[in-house]
Amino acid sequence: MCPWKRNIRVDGRAQSIDPAREDRPCLAPHAPALWLPFSSSPFSLGLAVEAAAPRRARARPSLWTRNRPGPSNCDGVEFDSTFDAVQKVVFEPYGCTIETCHGSQSASGGLDLSPDVAWENLHDVPSSGSGDLRILPGSARRSVLYQKLAAATLGEPTLGSPMPIGRKPLSENDLSLVQWWIYGGAPKAGVVLDALEFVPGCLPDAEPIEIKPLAKPAAGEGIQFEMPIFDLPAGLELERCFATYFDVCDQVPTELQDAAGETFPFGARELRMDPGSHHLILWLASVAADQPDDPSFGEWTCASGPPAGERCEPMDLAACGEGSCVSQAVDSFACIGYGPSAGGGGPGRVAIGGAQQAQDFVQYPEGVYGRIPCRGVHYWNPHTFNLTTEEQTVHARLNYYFPEADKQQYFIRGGLTGPIFIAAGQAPFTKETYCATETFPRGTRLFGLSSHTHKHGERFWITGPGGDLLYENFVYNDPNEEVFDPPLEYDSADPAERTVEFCATYNNGVNDDGTPNVDLVTRSSRVPASASAEGSFGACVPIACVNDGMVGETCNGDDDDASCDSSPGAGDENCDAC
Questions:
Q1: CA-CA distances (angstroms) from residue 525 to 462, 532, 552, 574?
Q2: CA-to-CA dists, residue 184 to 113, 212, 557, angstroms
Q3: Of 283, 396, 433, 435, which cross-links 349 as Cys (Cβ 3.0–4.6 Å)?
Q4: What is the distance between the alpha carbons of residues 500 and 496, in angstroms, rounded to a whole number?
Q5: Are 406 and 428 in contact (CB under 8 A)?
Q6: Would you call the peptide bond into 204 cis, given omega within 30 degrees of 0 as the criterion?
Q7: How many CB atoms within 10 Å of residue 59?
Q8: What average pLDDT does the segment 322-345 reach?
Q9: In the predicted model, is pLDDT for residue 337 greater than 70?
Q10: Backbone φ, ψ for residue 366 (5° rounding)
């Protein structure tokens, strides 16, 4: 057992917690972060590694308060789509389409960015220089186009020359337009909501976007798990949990199987999901692989295909044709309490994949690998929102890529294991900083850091044993991923030399000048039902007023609006801040 230690303090005040002790092997730490509701823990930490260089990115645009004017009330430039805006705001004004650059005659590097062919020459097309994709749908960091443009604007490293050559770099706003268009799948038609605030004009009303499906790994190179599709009504946010049975053991090469033939190794994993995802977690259920018929799962039915809606046998993988046999779905935060209970009172599931954004790619350092079962029961835990006026069918796929048989040297183990639960229920209209320490076991090799603070996390940072800053992030919903190559080594016999401190500043409704912000504070009326479900950490009981003249005054629950009246009987009450 590794001697993991955890100490927490809040603005200098000591706090103690007594986490359940467990066996934690001590090499190559890594764990996916858990996702917390807006009113719960201010931060959590996961260790991850990213193949590309760490990014500098603007915060993901706010989708909740954004004005989305349509052509009917537009008093400026009108664009047919987000890509039309990219063409007319970036490619043309910055000289990318002139004949000496990427015009139809010269087409430098074999790339013609003329309006009628630009998208076809970019989307999922290999670069003539590196062979990497000019645009990889969903990932700006792995797209050559973005890398070239960001190199000029932000000074980020790139192969070859930054773009545009011999002309002024893109403004950060215009670079963000390209970044978020790619993040939204880089569609030729339609409106990418994440990119909307960077468009200097008007766009049509947004419709749901289905991203190009993530291709399955070639036979013998990996495995794909596909989430059963579900429909998300217009204007709705939800987080739900449902189960599927899986058996991919026959897809694992013999030389990669364990002795029992029940697990497979992976050295990289990738997620691609339709735009509108807050997160997707893939859980491995603790239920026995041959017992997915526990009554707690409810009725199993086909999620798609000709027999959609019909009852099915979960272990019959052909029961639904090309579709999936899925358990009864429930609104649930992080699948807490879902399915049969685990022996010994455990959580009943362990996270094996997913991400806090719709697209993600994780490549472990050479020699580092993970291993998960090739048959069993998955819990799918998508948290999605549909901000369009039409129903959306939600798709998601996760790939696990096999390592070479002789490149399995270091088994990836538990690290900073997800969330540190502190400050749940921080008072409305306050800002505080929380810190915790973690002592690594001797022999730890730290190869990556990332973070997840949810909506109210303003800043997250980690310092090493000597006080050096190891990691810092200011963007709660698009965090940096810091990679250490070679990994940081923690071999000292002195625990102090193996202890890191991580901190977060958590803002629950305070403007820069210290005044209250009723749009930033956690609001009972805005917490999704799934986050308030029994057993979750998102229950929100309002204790402060948000109406004019009474902001910050004390009240007691949703039924105590009268305490927020600006004068007796005024009827302008609103007890809503948590």
A1: 34, 11, 16, 10
A2: 20, 10, 39
A3: 283
A4: 8
A5: no
A6: no
A7: 11
A8: 82
A9: yes
A10: -55, 130
Q: What is the 3-state secondary structure (H, E, C) of 453-519?
A: CCCCEEEEEEECCCCCEEEEECCCCCCCCEEEEEEEEECCCCHHHHEEEEEEEEEECECCCCCECCC
- Exposed, middle or buried, 552 (CB in 10 Å: 0-12/13-18/19+)? middle
What span, in angstroms and rounded, lies between the C-alpha atoms of 35 and 333? 9
The four Cα atoms 536, 538, 539, 541 give a dihedral, to 10 degrees, of: 170
What average pLDDT does the chain have? 79
Give CA 571 to chain center in angstroms: 41
- Rounded CA-CA distance 51/56 in Å is 15
More confident residue, 559 or 19: 559
E-strand stretches of 62-164? none
Scan for tokens 């070639």, then name that residue. Answer: 218
DSSP code string of 116-135:
TTHHHHHBT-B-TTTSSBSB
Q: Is 388 helix (H, G, I), strand (E, B) or coil?
A: coil
Return the beta strands (E) in 133-262 as ranges.
222-226, 230-232, 237-247
* Residue 70 vs residue 534, higher pLDDT: 534
Joined together, the tokens standing for residue 282 give 């893939």
CA 530 from chain centre, in angstroms, equals 18
Token look-up 């991580």 returns 502
pLDDT in tens, 521-559: 999 888 766 555 555 556 688 999 999 999 999 999 888
pLDDT, tens digit, for every residue of 151-208? Answer: 999 987 777 788 887 788 999 999 999 999 999 999 999 999 989 989 999 999 999 9
Kindly tell me if the per-residue pLDDT of 297 is higher than 80. yes
DSSP E strands in 109-247: the ranges are 222-226, 230-232, 237-247
pLDDT at 292: 80
Alpha carbon distance 206, 468 (integer Å): 45
The CA radius of gyration of the chain, in Å to the nearest whole number, is 25
Q: Which residue has the tokens 């302008």?
A: 572
Q: How far is CA 420 from the centre of its chain?
A: 18
Give the contacts of 278 (CB within 8 A, at least 6 positions apart).
Answer: 35, 237, 239, 356, 383, 384, 385
Please list, residue by residue across 410-447, b when 16 or more beta carbons sit within 10 angstroms of its beta carbon and e when fewer do: bebbbbbbbbbbbbeebebbeebbbbbbbbbbbebbbb
Of the candidates 467, 499, 461, 464, the one whose C-alpha atom is nearest the C-alpha of residue 480 is 461
The two three-digit tokens of residue 204, written as one number: 């049509």
> In this structure, what DSSP letter does residue 89 have?
I
Mean pLDDT highest for which of 57-71, 137-151, 351-365? 137-151
Which are the contacts of 137, defined by CB distance < 8 A and separation ≥ 6?
123, 124, 182, 185, 186, 211, 212, 272, 359
What pLDDT sits at residue 26? 24
Residue pair 278/348 in contact (Cβ under 8 Å)? The answer is: no
pLDDT tens sequence across 413-468: 654 544 444 445 689 999 999 888 888 888 888 888 888 777 788 999 999 998 99
pLDDT at 282: 95
